[in-house]
Every structure is written in C-alpha cells, then in structure tokens.
Amino acid sequence: MIAFLIVNQVLMKISDSKEVQDKYKEWIEKSNVVQKFGRNQYTFQGGGKLTKQMIEYLDKLPENGRGNRLDFLQKYGVITTTKDGNFNKAGERISLQGYLASWFSALNKAGIISSTQGKKGFTKGENFEKFKEKILTKK
Question: Counting Cβ atoms within 10 Å, is residue 76 exposed (0-12), middle (13-18) or buried (19+)?
C-alpha cells in the first residue's frame, strides 16, 4: 500500500511537469495523433460513407425540418428495427441511445448538425453548408 502511494505521487509529479507536458504536445503534433480519451477521434476530413450519407439526409430535410437518429440509421441501413429491438449489421442487439453516440456528438460539436437541449432530433448546423461543399468537392 505504501509503495502504491509513493509510485502514485511520483507519477503525479512527473505528469504535472511542464517538460513532460511539452514533450507530449510535441509528440501529438508530430505524429498527428488525435487523443482518444477526453476528446472524440472524429475529424470528418475524409468524408467517409456514413458522413456523406448524413449530408444527403440533412439535405433532404424540409426547410427547418428536424431529423432524428433512428430515422437516419434505419434509412441508410445502419440498423434494422424489429419487434424485438434494434440490431446492427452483424445482427447484434444494440441500444439506440449509445449507438454511434460519439459520432453524433462530434457532428454536433463540428457544427454539422445542431441539437438543442430539451428538443428531440437535430437540424442542419451552422457549419453544414461549408462542410457539405468541402466534402462534395473532394475527390
């Protein structure tokens, strides 16, 4: 127990060190790695298939229309819904609340979608048009 406390104190001192933090930041910048803890790992740089489908989905929404997670995921075949629940492509039962939650959150943070606290669904975000142009013109 005492050894654990000593090691823990030493590790805390090292991690608080400005030199260690500077080296860490330098390594992150050089390796172009995105932290997987504390920050989502989605950058939307590549405009993957699901992201392009979201652009299409949002584009088809009526003026001031609201989309929702279930409708989007069902429409593009990401999940299927039966009387027994929601299932992914592998046939595994999923919880809709947590399924792709970090991806939807990242879309929201990037301004591609906008979800208002207390309201169901989402709308086009403030950066939707810029993002759409960027992705659709990318080869």
Answer: middle
pTM of the entire predicted model: 0.64
Helix (H, G, I), strand (E, B) or coil at 15: helix
Handedness of CA 62, 116, 54, 86 (dihedral sign): negative
34: DSSP letter? P
Q: What is the pLDDT of residues 5-38, one digit of tens each?
A: 676 676 666 666 677 667 766 665 655 544 443 4
Q: Is 54 exposed, middle or buried (0-12, 13-18, 19+ CB in 10 A)?
A: buried
Burial of 97 per CB tally in 10 Å (0-12, 13-18, 19+): exposed
Could you tell me the strand order of the sheet in which 79-82 lies?
79-82, 85-88, 93-94
Contact 77, 90 (CB under 8 A): no
Nearest to 57 by CA among 71, 42, 47, 43: 71
DSSP string, 36-56: SSSS------S--HHHHHHHH
CATH architecture of the domain with residue range 49-136: Orthogonal Bundle (1.10)
